[in-house]
């Protein structure tokens, strides 16, 4: 009687998620369907700047100088629709650089920033009442937990997180109340993403 041969199963364990590279019938409830999208929430701030590289138009800023007008925004869920943040001098604070330029449907989470009028050049001042204006950039990013990254970065994210020694902070609970502040006299020169913006164009 012939004995059926078992085929080896190769799986990646990334941030507590099983990602099968070959069919994995033995894993009940495999998240493969959720990972079919080309972009998934990375959930870490480690090595953020390596993944979201700076642009020529990014101008240096001092987050502590954000003493101008403030705007309060509440985000019901992640992601917020803010594509990129940059750190201030000394790696402190976080400034919004790119916001998705449309809301595709009512309640679109990735249209929240656009619907709330969030603009490039705004500095994150508080998150759920916690002053983060001059905190470490990676800490601010971990609190926001707002990155939508290509899943191909999963391995590098895990390595960067390990090298960093873990998260700088646990993600803030939703709904997330964020106060943004402007820098008097600062002239932001970044890109305003229009309604025709698509990820494939970048």
UniProtKB/TrEMBL annotation:
<protein>
    <recommendedName>
        <fullName>PDZ domain-containing protein</fullName>
    </recommendedName>
</protein>
<feature type="signal peptide">
    <location>
        <begin position="1"/>
        <end position="20"/>
    </location>
</feature>
<keyword id="KW-0732">Signal</keyword>
